[in-house]
């Protein structure tokens, strides 16, 4: 199972990625994790990335694709792999294709913007323990207070409406084009073209998980 997971921030990709990883016994490939590991290990790609980052620049797609190819040679990728949060742009998708990185499925988790804003902006957390609540879906016993300690809950900056909206704007402007990119490629039926599947990310987590498994077995 070689898979790319697509969807807006807050669509529940991380939750579903965990179910998929477990079912198919595959690793989740995160470019951030790969960068950190390559820099720590002092690999050629890692040193090249560190040089760019130390100078305050953005790591080029060439370096990222090099890291991806190195990572996919590791033994835990024998059964496949799952990309979440990569590729983010058409240039990265093209680079992956040119590098011959095989993909069996592209799975899109679709959630309307207003629902994502409600999901994320309603989160409240207890800084001391990391316990997370939601004003609507998982409220504390006493409004604004942690169930265990009674201390004040806070809304993280990441979960504020304006921050969520900004992240969604970036997604729509930069990453959403990948939906059409992969959908169109899938429809060509060319050798090496992935299958494209879209599921709804609205509803109970288990229902979404079952829909994802069903989509990946078609």
From TrEMBL:
Pathway: Purine metabolism; AMP biosynthesis via salvage pathway; AMP from ADP: step 1/1. Residues 122-159 are annotated as: LID. Monomer. It is an enzyme of class 2 (transferase). This is Adenylate kinase. One of its GO terms (cellular component) is cytoplasm. Residues 30-59 are annotated as: NMP. GO terms for biological process: AMP salvage. Pfam families: ADK, ADK_lid. Consists of three domains, a large central CORE domain and two small peripheral domains, NMPbind and LID, which undergo movements during catalysis. The LID domain closes over the site of phosphoryl transfer upon ATP binding. Assembling and dissambling the active center during each catalytic cycle provides an effective means to prevent ATP hydrolysis. The keyword Repressor does not apply. HAMAP family: Adenylate_kinase_Adk (MF_00235). NCBIfam families: adk (TIGR01351), PRK00279.1-1 (NF001379), PRK00279.1-2 (NF001380), PRK00279.1-3 (NF001381). Residues 123-158 form the Adenylate kinase active site lid domain. It catalyses: AMP + ATP = 2 ADP. AMP binds at residues 31, 36, 57-59, 85-88, 92, 156, 167. GO terms for molecular function: AMP kinase activity; ATP binding. Keywords: ATP-binding, Cytoplasm, Kinase, Nucleotide biosynthesis, Nucleotide-binding, Transferase. The lineage of its organism: Bacteria, Pseudomonadati, Pseudomonadota, Betaproteobacteria, Burkholderiales. Its EC number is 2.7.4.3. Belongs to the adenylate kinase family.
């Amino acid at each position: 199972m070689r898979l790319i997971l697509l969807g807006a921030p807050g669509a529940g990709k991380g939750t579903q990625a965990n179910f998929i990883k477990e079912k198919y016994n595959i690793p989740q490939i995160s470019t951030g994790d790969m960068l950190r590991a390559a820099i720590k290990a002092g690999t050629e790609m890692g040193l090249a990335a560190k040089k760019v980052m130390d100078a305050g620049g953005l790591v080029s797609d060439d370096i990222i694709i090099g890291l991806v190819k190195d990572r996919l040679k590791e033994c835990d990728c024998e059964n496949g792999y799952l990309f979440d949060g990569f590729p983010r742009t058409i240039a990265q998708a093209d680079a992956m294709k040119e590098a011959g990185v095989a993909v069996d499925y592209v799975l899109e988790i679709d959630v309307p913007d207003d629902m994502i804003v409600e999901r994320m902006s309603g989160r409240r957390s207890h800084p001391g323990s990391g316990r997370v609540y939601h004003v609507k879906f998982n409220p504390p016993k006493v409004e604004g207070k942690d169930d265990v300690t009674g201390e004040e809950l806070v809304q993280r900056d990441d979960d504020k409406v304006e921050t969520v909206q900004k992240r969604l704007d970036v997604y729509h402007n930069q990453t959403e084009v990948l939906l059409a990119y992969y959908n169109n490629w899938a429809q060509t039926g060319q050798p090496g073209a992935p299958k494209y599947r879209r599921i709804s990310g609205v509803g109970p987590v288990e229902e979404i998980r079952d829909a994802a498994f069903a989509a990946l077995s078609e």
